[in-house]
């Protein structure tokens, strides 16, 4: 993955405050360094645990050949392992739910693959206001557990997605207009640091680390427990409302109407176009109410006749299972992120239109290179983030993402899923070119924003410059304070790096 280099930060970071992280001396000694102290949690090639864990990724593009798998049974064992790896100057990768579809972001050739599978905490505090979640979990597990108490949490909208990577990226969730990003609802992190110590990061302890983990990803340590606010949730009214191609313009106008005036914070929408032999437009609608359907604010969408609809009262747990079934794992998958911003309906519709038209104009080039039978799905979706959402973030203390509540953001994502690794480079190149074309066009129209949501980003994209210079610099400072030897930048090469 291409990572923003120190040079690209010129002007942000004074040259003297930063020495470039040095390259590791050894790439393969990690497995032997862990064998003596941690042999019971270490699995070599050929073992059944290795085979299971090395295959346990969302997209085939992520599959690699680690030297061994380290599956710690506790935070203490993980801490001991990190300490040993740092001493041995040995490379490693960390995998949570394995949904970051970028080769090398959560996996490694020859080095140690650390998996979170056995860090399985899942419990409510006494008054049920906080749920503690270990990084083994997927949101589906969390929702199923919480639903028994008529509760939920601000996590992934699809059940199979992993907890740790999502919360470390930000966390776009159904309750965003009420609570902000998923990370904004985290009140405490338990973190293993580079020196092998285990610390808590919260509002009163390691405050700077607490802030940095809200969007700063894997640059500071490995999180072994997230303590999150719960949300009361008996049932919600939610589903997908799908309309045919003839209504695309009306559908996109509905998306702009909603985004430009999100006056009902109980709502969440994900409008998407799904090109194919018959192109469809489909919107996920979510309303946090167990007694009210078809709220007024959704009318621009629900007035369009549906070819299919799953809208109904249901639990969040059932809904995340439903949305989870809309995607297929074990194939090849890429996401790309981008953002337009504006303040009016007109600006937001223009942004949507430019993205739509550029994307569809480029599609024939992709179809020319890949047989239709090998394209599983193509999607273009938009995530509106308005004032209520950002104010909810601010009221909880804020995060590192650097969004400005006087703007409305429409984060778009391009998704391509295909069958056959022979097409990996074709898809990657097509998406990179298409994304540059979209962003050059939105830039020309004065609607471009450099924010790329990490959860949707591709390997060629950079993330932290989009948080703004000040936040980026703060993240670098926190990384240097808690990890002075830059272990998480050098020995753990995968993922998005602040420097
Ligand atoms: C089908 C699908 C649906 C999605 N839906 C949503 C959604 O609704 N909302 C949203 O916000 N995003 C969504 N995403 C994006 C998602 O947030 C990211 O893919 C995220 O990385 C998933 O977390 P994970 O634990 O599965 O990731 P992983 O791939 O396991 O990890 C991602 C990164 O975090 C690092 N990491 C993992 N665990 C830890 C840890 N404990 N401590 C430190 N670093 C760690 C890894 O090394 C890697 O660099 C979706 C993605 C997919 C594929
Ligand atoms: C560790 O996780 C794996 C995979 O989920 C599971 O099969 C195994 O039983 C777990 N081991 C322990 C000791 O919890
Ligand atoms: C914050 O960390 C301190 C120090 O470990 C701990 O005593 C306190 O309970 C933590 N606060 C929260 C909200 O978890
Ligand atoms: C729906 O539920 C909410 C919250 O419990 C309540 O305030 C409201 O009066 C209810 N509305 C109807 C129409 O029953
Ligand atoms: C979006 O693109 C489709 C396919 O090219 C086109 O039919 C439609 O008119 C476009 N709508 C807008 C608002 O850009
Ligand atoms: C295309 O997909 C089919 C299955 O639909 C698969 O058998 C084939 O190997 C794929 N082609 C390539 C070149 O990978
Ligand atoms: C505009 O396009 C060029 C190359 O085609 C690319 O390098 C540049 O990053 C693009 N601009 C944006 C904002 O993406």
TrEMBL record:
Flavoprotein is among the record's keywords: yes
Superkingdom of the source species: Eukaryota
Short name of one Pfam family: FAD_binding_4
Coiled-coil zones: none
Sample GO molecular function, one term: FAD binding
Keywords: FAD, Flavoprotein, Oxidoreductase, Signal
Sequence ranges assigned to domain FAD-binding PCMH-type in this UniProt record: 62-233
Keyword Oxidoreductase: yes
InterPro entries recorded: FAD-bd_PCMH, FAD-bd_PCMH-like_sf, FAD-bd_PCMH_sub2, FAD-linked_Oxidoreductase, Oxid_FAD_bind_N
Signal peptide: 1-15
Stated family: Belongs to the oxygen-dependent FAD-linked oxidoreductase family.
Protein name, per record: FAD-binding PCMH-type domain-containing protein
Organism annotation: Penicillium olsonii
